Amino acid sequence: MFEPLLPLTTDADLVAMATELVGVAIRRRTWLFVLDDEQRLSPIVIPMDGVPADADPAHVAILAARLGELVAGVPGAASVVLVWERPGAADVRMQEADWIAGLAASDAPIRAQLVASDDGVHLVDPAFAAVVAR
Question: Which of 76, 3, 18, 2 is nearest to 42 (CA)?
Answer without folding.
Answer: 76
